[in-house]
Amino acid sequence: MPEYSFRIAWSLLLLCLTAGCGGGGSGTAAVSGKITHKGKPLAKANVSFTPVDGESRAATGLTDESGYYKLGTFSTSDGALPGKYRVVIIARGPDRPPRPGETGSGMPGEMMPGEALIPMKYFAPDSSGLTFEVKKGSNSADFDLAD
Question: 42, 66 in Cβ contact below 8 A?
Answer without folding.
Answer: no
